[in-house]
From TrEMBL:
The keyword Coiled coil applies. Belongs to the UPF0751 family. InterPro entries: UCP020408. This is DUF2325 domain-containing protein. Residues 201-228 form a coiled coil. It comes from Pseudaquabacterium inlustre. Keywords: Coiled coil.
Length: 423
């Protein structure tokens, strides 16, 4: 920062080295003010007071512009450091030199607007008011040049202007230091934010990779589900087509099913009426006609199974015999034994593969039930037992799933149905 009011006694002239610790006091330099022009003509740069060059060069011209002007005038001999350029421009401005004229022209061109504004000002008071107003704005550099070179600027106003710009330069220096400190803080914060941003970008990239992998999995699942859906729709279409063909081939299928259900109901009713008639005949004949062997054979099995109604062995012909349970390999053997007696054979596995709901219909259509107690579920066993007990239908319980077991059970039924030999 240059001293404004008076030059420092130790301040060197242009071209002399700076001595901060002189061995003896330097002689005081006389302060010779430059002559002020008369009339309304603006003052030139070299016509200003000697202590006004430093603020004018330092404030009104950027350092790059000063360097360009000095290098254009002096070429390779121009100073290379910023402070040397500043001192060279000040020294050249104290008298009318080519460099001073170049600086004068550059200042007039740069602040032409401020110069046009001050042309209408004719007295010192108005110029001072305009200067005080300009200090509150942003065009301080242009106002400084226009005020110092104005014809109405007297010594007192020039002193006040230089004092104001001196204090303003201090404020600018403090503000610049604060700005630099703030800039360092912002740079530190910026580095932290960049680090955080890098971390977030890495995390985002990882999440995007995981989402891409998940999306691929979902797309694969979607393709699989679409394939299953197409297969299901194709199967539904095939079944619908087959159903339509079956309905077209057998238009009386629904009435036939209704008739079949009616036939089963009538058959069950007929069996019930036949059984009731048989019971009525036995009751009319009296208890003496009951064979003793029948009561003897059915007594041991009364605790485990319902008492079957004696069915005469010749009556097995043309009857419907239902076999519930048993092993699959024994079913053909049972069928051969039953059909050899002239009966109609039917089989239900007790709910393993056949529907449990079909068991009631099969029981209702049967005249004789053979229950495989060793190869049947508890639910099917109790269904058979409850139905036979409720309807009085003959039921044979076979423990062993074999030909001999079936023949033994049929033999017991035949012995129970045969009349007793008189003694």
């Amino acid at each position: 920062m240059c001293r404004i009011a008076r030059p420092h006694p130790f301040w060197p002239t242009a071209g002399q080295p700076l001595n901060l610790w002189p061995t003896q006091a330097a002689p005081a330099l006389p302060d010779i003010p430059a002559p002020r022009p008369s009339g309304s003509r603006r003052r030139r740069l070299w016509e200003l007071d000697s202590h006004a060059f430093c603020p004018v060069i330092g404030v009104c011209l950027p350092l790059d512009a000063v360097r360009a002007l000095v290098q254009r005038e002096q070429g390779a001999e121009a100073p290379t450091d910023d402070y040397g350029l500043h001192c060279e421009a000040i020294a050249a401005s104290k008298r009318r030199t080519p460099l001073a004229e170049r600086i004068q022209q550059a200042l007039d061109t740069r602040y032409a607007e401020a110069l046009r504004t001050t042309r209408a000002i004719k007295d010192t008071e108005a110029l001072a008011s305009w200067w005080r107003a300009a200090l509150q704005g942003d065009g301080v550099a242009g106002a400084l040049w226009a005020t110092l070179t104005h014809a109405a600027c007297d010594t007192l106003l020039e002193e006040q202007v230089l004092h104001d710009i001196h204090l303003l330069q201090h404020q600018w220096g403090a503000a610049e230091r604060a700005d630099r400190r703030r800039l360092r803080e912002l740079q530190t914060a910026h580095e932290r934010l960049q680090h955080s941003q890098g971390t977030l970008l890495a995390r985002q990239a990882e999440q995007l990779q995981q989402q891409a992998l998940r999306l691929e999995q979902l797309q694969a699942s979607l393709v699989q589900l679409r394939g299953e859906l197409i297969g299901r729709d194709t199967r539904i279409a095939q079944l619908s087509h087959a159903l339509a063909q079956a309905q077209q081939a057998s238009p009386d299928l629904a009435p036939r099913r209704e008739l079949q259900a009616q036939v089963l109901a009538l058959r069950e009713r007929l069996v019930g009426l036949d059984r009731a008639l048989r019971h009525a005949r036995l009751a009319a004949a009296g208890p003496a006609t009951l064979p003793a062997s029948a009561s003897a054979c059915t007594a041991p099995a009364a605790a485990a199974a319902p008492v079957p109604v004696p069915l005469p062995w010749p009556a097995l012909s043309q009857r419907a015999v239902l076999c519930v349970g048993g092993r699959s390999r024994a079913v053909p053997v049972y069928r051969h034994v039953i059909e050899r007696e002239g009966a109609h054979f039917a089989h239900h596995d007790g709910g393993t593969e056949h529907s449990p709901a079909q068991l009631e219909a099969c029981l209702a259509a049967a005249d004789l039930v053979i229950c495989q107690t060793g190869c049947i579920s508890h639910d099917a066993y109790w269904r058979v037992k409850s139905h036979c007990k409720r309807t009085g239908k003959p039921c044979l319980f076979v423990e062993q799933s074999s030909r001999s077991g079936l023949q033994r059970a049929l033999g017991l039924a035949h012995a129970a149905a045969s009349p007793a030999t008189p003694s």
